[in-house]
Amino acid sequence: MSSRRANVVDLSDTIVAQATAPGRGALAIVRVSGPAAHSIGRLAIDRWPQRSREIVLLAIRDEDGAELDRGIVVRYDGPASYTGEDAIEIVTHGGAVVPTTIVAALISRGARMATPGEFTRRAVLNGKLDLLQADATGDLVSASSRAAQRVALHQLDGGLTRRVLSLRNEVIALEALIAYDIDFPEEDDGPVAPERVLATAAKVIASLEQLLATSQRGELVREGALVVLAGPPNVGKSSLFNALLGESRAIVTPIPGTTRDAIEAVIDTPSWPLRLVDTAGLHEATDPVERLGVEVSANYLGRAAVVLACGDDAEALRLAATAAAHHSAAPRILVYTKSVLQSPDADELQLLQSEFAADDTAAVSAETGVGVGELLEAVNAVLGRAAGALETDAPLLTHTRHRSAVARALDEVRNFHGVWCTAAAPAPVAAVHLRAAVTALEDLIGAVTVEDILDEVFRRFCVGK
Predict the structure, then answer these.
(1) pLDDT at 131 over 60
(2) 308-341 b/e with 16+ CB inside 10 Å = b?
(3) What's the pTM?
(4) What is the CATH architecture assignment of 226-387?
């Protein structure tokens, strides 16, 4: 059996899983879904709820009749459930033992353990969600910032789906013009004017380009904008990292080379989620372990969205800016880190900013907090200039799969435009590009179900969702 076939969901199975995180907790939720969900539930539960969505407090028992817990049971009748199937949810006491024994009791009566994301996958297969909404469900569960939360909620509500469907309809309308020209060339209205076709294609291309351009913002929202603190050892990077976080996360000592690896944390600012990274000092290291830390720092700099080049004097700032420019093409902010000890020379900072084409400068004191808020504002301003304004209620492409599908559709419409402009191929051949563009957009929302795409969407999900 191929690995692809092994991943195909059998909707005749009834599945069960703990939907809450394992471990100690006040409550846990066990979910069951499938054609035999109700009959399995009746065998394990003392008093079965008589109506859909009725909430009942009752005992759950194992095969021998021993009571496992008293919990709340909610019955759902398909298709009016999350998965579109008959389902039940059992709210029990938390911990390691109670929910595990309840799951085991349900498996012993005929259910099987769900695979990661299988509940949501069934919701897609049963038409309760489309693939973009399934992506949003996973994003909402894993959101590490308010911006990611808001974007996921908007997409779960169908915002991106509606935009993609609108683009699909635009391409189909263009396809219809070509079909009319192919099928009814002798009609009284005459053939469709080539200029009309080109104008419509140009409009579709502009719409696709506009959506594709949101992928950078989408990635920044979902992953967080990578903001890397870089500079020589012992210039206050770790102190600044802690001040930006508002808590002590990095070891701060007067010994050069203390940070031998990168330390990462997320700051949830009102504008952008920031993945702040404190790196090892950039210098010629002789110690093998310290040299590895410097290599890690260079790797982070290569992927940075913004670099904070840190120094406690003009020479250190010069070294930091030089190293940052060598390893990264990202926007840079020159940060004078110890302004509490000595105020920086404003003319000197401006000269350095001009010399290294830095986007901004900042003078901060980790000890007193002076300038830290202004530095965060500067970082957000730089990101805004690079990626555009963040509108969390607008459709954003947040996954590589999204970007790839829209890029494919855009390439196909561009190819059609080029062929039509030059009359390089007859209309039926040119129209093949439009059909490929429609298919790419349908793959994105799941109008065309492909198992490999489903596997990609759900492999990151947790069990029970």
Answers:
(1) yes
(2) bbbbbbeebbbbbbebbbebbebbbbbbbbbbee
(3) 0.76
(4) 3-Layer(aba) Sandwich (3.40)
